[in-house]
Write a structure and sequence with these properties.
Layout: H1 3-31, H2 38-67, H3 76-98, H4 103-112, H5 114-131, H6 135-141, H7 143-148, H8 151-166, H9 172-204
Helix pairs in contact: 1-2, 1-3, 2-3, 2-8, 2-9, 3-5, 4-5, 5-8, 8-9
Bound molecules: protoporphyrin IX containing FE (HEM).
Length: 205
């Protein structure tokens, strides 16, 4: 896989990931079809895209291992950063459009409404990941970089719980996302157990 080809794939991924945002802007601007509750619609689209992207980011490693397509790893950072941007826009929509920068009521929400608390912690966990996503940070942190970036799993778990807790009547979607996340975590745990066993076997022989 040449650098050029990977660059091309990254550009395609970037464009594909921008579609939900551009579609939202088009609906908000020219077409005016954001429904009876536009702010809710924006919140939901951005929230759903964030969750899609965090799960897609987590699928990359199993996909790479199962298919042997090493270049897939090169997409992880782009996907992760796009996810972070969507989460920030999602949170800003809530802060600015939904709550009108009412800091006191925002503070009450973050401290007293469990689904907002979980969403907030998930967002906070993503901050160090986004800040250390550069090649230089990866070099500087060495082995600690991989450990730090395991926080993505916790951020995803909290994101899915946030989705589950805010659901009102139909919880089929949050359940679907929970199952996908459980499968991804299961794959990770299985790989970890296998590598531990392999190390143990090598030690025994
Ligand atoms: C400070 C952080 C966050 C705040 C303030 C926030 C706030 C909200 C609010 C107010 C809703 C709508 C609830 C309703 O309709 O009653 C929502 C929905 C949602 N949020 Fe968040 N959120 C945050 C972080 C996150 C994160 C980190 C993720 C994912 C990684 C996420 C994913 C979602 C999803 C998937 C929905 C539901 C969308 C749907 O029903 O289609 N949120 N959030």
């Amino acid at each position: 896989m040449t650098r050029r080809f990977l660059g091309f794939i990254k550009a395609l991924v970037l464009l594909a990931c921008l579609i939900p945002l551009l579609h939202l802007l088009a609906r908000a601007n020219g077409l005016g079809d954001l429904g009876a509750n536009p702010v809710q619609e924006i919140l939901h689209t951005l929230g759903k895209t964030s969750l899609n992207l965090i799960l897609i980011t987590l699928i990359i490693t199993p996909l790479r291992k199962e298919t042997g397509l090493v270049w897939l790893v090169g997409l992880r950072r782009t996907l992760g950063l796009l996810c972070f941007c969507y989460v920030v826009f999602h949170a800003l929509t809530y802060i600015a459009l939904d709550q009108g920068f009412a800091w006191n009521s925002l503070f009450v929400d973050v401290t007293q409404r469990p689904y907002i608390t979980l969403g907030f912690i998930s967002l906070l966990l993503m901050v160090p990941l986004a800040l250390t996503s550069t090649n230089s940070a990866q070099r500087r942190l060495g082995r600690r970089w991989a450990k730090l970036h395991r926080l993505i799993y916790l951020a995803a778990i909290l994101g899915v719980l946030h989705f589950l807790l805010q659901a009102k009547i139909d919880i089929s979607d949050p359940i679907f996302y929970s199952v996908v996340l459980l499968l991804l975590l299961g794959y990770r745990i299985n790989t970890w157990l296998k590598s531990r066993q392999a190390i143990k076997n090598r030690g025994d022989s």
